[in-house]
Amino acid sequence: MSESEAKLVCRDVWKVFGDGAAQFLRSHAGKATHDALVEAGLVGAVRAANMEVRTGEIFVIMGLSGSGKSTLVRCLSRLIEPTAGEILFKGENLLAASDKRMIEIRRHQMGMVFQHFALLPHLDVLHNVAFPLDVQGVARDKREARARQMIELVGLAGKEGFFPRELSGGQQQRVGIARSLAVEPELWFLDEPFSALDPLIRREMQDEFSRLQSVLKKTIVFITHDFDEAIRLADRIAIMKDGEIVQVGKPEEIVLAPATDYVAEFTRNVPKAKVVRVRSVMKPATGRMPRDSVSPLATIADAAPLFTGRVTRLKVVDDSGRELGVLERADVVDVMMRG
Amino acid sequence: MGAPAQAQNNTQPGEAEASARRRRGAVLAWGVAIAAFVVFWQFGKPLAAWAFKYPKAYAIPAQAWISSGMKWLLNEATFGLFTFLDLTRFTAAMIDIPYKLALSLLSTGFLQGQGSGAVQLLPPVSWIAVIAIVALLGWHAGGRRLALLVAGCFAFLAMFGQWDSAMVTLASILVAVPIGVVLGLLLGIVAYRWPALERAIIPLLDLMQTIPVFAYLVPILFLFGFGPTAAVVATLIYALPPMTRVTILALRQVPSEVIDLGNMVGCTPRQMTWRVMVPSAKDSLMVGVNQVIMLSLNMVIIASMIGAGGLGFDVLAALRRLDIGAGLEAGMAIVALAIALDRLSQAYAYRIAKPHHETAANKGFVARHPYTVGALAFVAVTMAIGLAVPAVQDYPDGLKVSTGPFFSDVVGWINVNFFDVLEGMKNALLLNVMVPAKRLLLDLPWFGVVVLLAFAGYRLGGWRLAATIGALSFLIAATRQWEKAMITVYLCGSSVVLAALIGIPIGVLVAERDRAWRVVQVIIDTLQTLPSFVYLMPAVMLFRVGDFTAMIAVVAYAVAPAIRYTVLGLKGVDPRLIEAGKAMGCTPWQLLSRIRLKLAFPEIMLGLNQTIMFALSMLVITALVGTRDLGQEVYIALTKADTGRGLVAGLAVAFIGIIADRLISAGARRVRQSLGLA
Known about the structure:
The complex is a heterodimer. By secondary structure, chain A is an alpha/beta fold. Chain A has two domains: 52-85 and 96-272, P-loop containing nucleotide triphosphate hydrolases (Rossmann fold), CATH 3.40.50.300; 274-337, Alpha-Beta Complex (CBS domain Like). Chain A is built from 14 helices and 13 strands. Chain A has helices at 21-27, 34-39, 69-76, 99-109, 125-136, 140-153, 169-181, 199-216, 227-233, 251-256, 261-267, 278-281, 300-303, 329-337, and strands at residues 6-17, 43-54, 58-62, 84-89, 92-93, 110-113, 187-191, 219-224, 236-241, 244-249, 293-294, 313-317, 323-328. Chain A is globular. The two termini of chain A are 26 Å apart. Chain B is mainly alpha-helical. Among the domains of chain B are: 178-327, Orthogonal Bundle (MetI-like fold), CATH 1.10.3720; 481-678, Orthogonal Bundle (MetI-like fold), CATH 1.10.3720. Chain B has helices at 2-9, 13-43, 62-75, 84-108, 127-142, 144-159, 163-193, 195-210, 213-224, 228-252, 256-264, 269-280, 282-302, 310-321, 324-350, 365-368, 370-388, 390-393, 404-443, 446-461, 463-478, 482-511, 514-529, 536-543, 547-571, 575-583, 588-621, 630-639, 643-674, and strands spanning 110-112, 119-122. In chain B, strands 1-2 form a two-stranded antiparallel sheet. In chain B, β1 and β2 (119-122) form a beta hairpin. In chain B, α9 (213-224) crosses α29 and α26 (575-583) runs antiparallel to α27 (588-621). Chain B starts with a helix and ends with a helix. Chains A and B meet through α4, β6 and α5 of A and α11 and α12 of B.
C-alpha cells in the first residue's frame, strides 16, 4: 500500500484532569511522568499522544477500558478540550479554531458513530438519519432523499418510520452508521461501534463495515477494546495503555514484533497465519518462476491451501499483474507452526 | 469514594479499636451535651433569664423591615420609565387575557357588556363536549379504560352539581400550568447551562418550597391585585420549583454520548438545547409536568382565599359555615378532578407514541387528526343542539344529585352514636401526650435548644452545617417567633410520630406482599394527589376544631411518604443478604430487625424527612381549624393583610423545615456510609 498523505495529525497531545493541569504540564515541559502526575493529584487520561491518520486508511486505536482511547478520540474531534498539544486536520490546527469554525468543520467534514448508538428517542429512523442535515438547514426534500439513500446503504430500507426503541441493537447501530455518513464526512470516527452488540451480530456488523468501507473509502479512526476486531479491520493499529500510545503499526508488524510485554500479551493467542500477509514473508524472485500465483495481500492462512500436491512455491502477483516475488512452502509452514 | 471503601475493607485490628474508641467518644460527647443542656434548663433560669425568653430590646425588627420594604416596592420602586407596580399590574393584565379566554370557554361564555347587562354572544363549551374532550384525551393517552375513568370523574362533577365551580378551577389550572411548565423549564435550562446560577437558584427553590403558601399571598395581593390572576401568580410560585428541579435533573441524565452527537453534527448552542437535550429528556420532563398540574390544583384550591373562586371557595365557605355536607361534596369534586388530571397527565408521561410505519402524508386531514376532529365536532354539534335543547348546554338541574344532606346526616349519626368514643380518644391523647409535650417544649430555653441543634449539626455534618442550623434557629428566636415555633414543632412532631407509628408498620407489612402493596400503592398515590384542603373536612367533621383535629388532618396527609419510603427501603435491600441471613438460620423476626430494617434505615429516615415536609405544609392549612402556632400567625397576617408579619412567620416555618431536612439528610448520609451503602 502506498503511503498517502496524512489527513489528521496528532502531535504531543495531552489530556490531564484535575486542578491546575495546564500549569503543571507547562512547568514540566511536557515531560510529566505517570508518577509525577499522580503525586500532583492529577489524572493523565492521554499522555504525549503522537500519531497520524492517512487518507483512506482504517486507523484503529486499541486499548482496554481506562486506557484513554475514548478520551483521545474525543480530543481529536475536540469534544474534549486537550490540555496541550496540536491536532492538525488537513493542515489546520483544530485547537486554534473558533467555536464557529469547529461547528463548520464538524457539520461538513466529520462523522461519528457511538458505542451506545446515541439515537434521538423522539425521532424515527428517517429523521434520525436526516438530523445532521436538518441541523445544517438543508431543505427537507434534499435531506430526506439523502437519508433514504443512506438507510438503503446500511440495509434498513422499509424501516424509515420505526422508532429507535423498536429496533434491535444491530439495527440501531446501522441507523447510527447511516446518520454519521449522511453528511459525507471526510473523517469518520467510530467509537467502539460494535462493543454493545452480541458476538454474532458483532461479527456480522464487522463484515458489513468492511463492505461499506470497500465502497466508500473513507478515512477512519476506529476505537475498540477488542484486539481481534482491531486485527480484522485495521490498516494500522495504535495500542494504548495508561494514556500512552505504546505501539503503532500494521497488524502483522504488531503481531510479529510486539514492542512491549503488554502488547505481546495481546498477540500471544492470535493465530499468526490469519494476520501475516504473503508480502511479509515472500522472497525476491529468483530462478524459475512457479506457475501458480497468489496475491501479496492474501494472508498465510488463505495461501496455505494452494500448496497442494507437489506445489512448493507460489508466484506473488499483485492486481496489476506485476511479479513481486515467490512464496516458499517452508516459510508458510514456519508461520503456521508459530501459532 | 473508592478510598474509604477500601479502608473499610482492610480494617486492621488497630483500626477496629480506633473505630470503637470513636463510637465511645461520640456517645460521651452526646451524653455531656445533653446533660449540660438539662442542667442549664433546670437551674439556669435565675442566672440567665435572657436564655429562656429572648429579650425584646435585642429583637430583630424583621417584620417592620419587610413591611417597609413592601411599601417601598409599592410606592417608590421604579425602573425609570415605569414603576415596579406598573410592571406587576401589567403582568397581571397579561395573565388575565388567557384566563378570561379559558373562563369564557369553560364557564361564562363569551359576553358583551358588563355585569348583569352583559349579553352572551356565544355559550361556553357544553358539559357534554367537555366530557367528550377529556374522554378523547384519555383514549389518546391511555386507551379505553382511561377514557372511561376521566369521563366518569367529569360526569361525577356534573351530576353532583359541582360543574360550574369545577370549571372555574379548571380554567385557572389551564392558564397556570403552561406558564408554570414553560417558566420552570427555562429556569431549569438556564441553571443547567450556567452552574454558578444553579448554586444561586437552588436555595431560592428550597425557600419557595418550604415557605407556607399563605405567607406570600399577601404581598401577591398587593402587587397583583385581588382575583384569579393573583391566584395564578401564587400558583406559579408554588409549582415552579419542582419543575425547575426536574428539568435540571432530566437534562443531567441525558447520556453524554447524545450530547457528543449534538456537538459532532455541529449543533449551535440553541439547537443543542431545543433539538437534542430537551427532546431526549422528554420522558423525565413529563413527570415534572404532572407535578406542576397537581401542585397547581392544590394551590388553586388554597388561593380561593385571594379570590380564585371555584371549588376551593366552596370548601372554604362550607368550612366557615361548618356545613359539613356541602364541604364534603366540594371536597369530593376536588378529588374527582385531581384523579382525572393526575391519571391523564401520567398517561401522557408514560405514553409511547404509536409508531406510524406507513407515511400519513397521503391521507386526508381527518385521518391524520382523528382526535382533534372528533373533539371539534363534539363542540360544534353540542353547541348547535344546545341552542335548542338547554339540557345539552347545561346539565339539567332535575338530574342533579345532592349528597350534602346525606353526609350531614351521616356525620350527625356518627356524632350522636360515637361522640363519647371519639371524644374519649381525643381527650386521652390530648391530656396524656399532647399537652405535656407542648408544655415541655415551651419550657425549654431557646438558647440551649439553639446550641444543642448546632451541636447536632456539627456531629452529623461538620462546622458548616452547625453554622447554618445555629443561625437559622437563632433567627427564629431573634424575630420573637420562638413560642409559636415551639407549638409548630410540637404539632408537627406529634403528627410525624403518629404518622410514623402508622406508616412504618404498614410499610413493613406490605413490603413482602406484592398484591397488598399494589393496593396500598394506589391508595397512597391517590392520597398524595389530593389537595391538602380536602383533608380538613372529615377531620373537622369528627373532632370539631382544635389541635387534635389539626393533628389528624396532618397525619392523614403526611402518612403516605412514611409508608412509601419504608416499602422502597425494604424492597431495596440486597436479596443476597436476606438469603445469607436465611442460610444462617435467622428467624423471620431476626431477618426483619437485624437485616432488613437495619439496611433500610437510611431510606426510612428520608421518608420521615418527607413526612415532616408534608406535615409542615399541611400544618399551615390547619390554621383554618384553630391552631395557635406559626401557621395561625401566617393566617392572621393574611386576614390582616400584614406582609411583614406573614413573611416573618412563614420564614420561621421554612427555617424549621430546612433545619429538619438538613439534619436528617446528614444523618441518613452518615448511616448509609457506616453501613457501606454509599
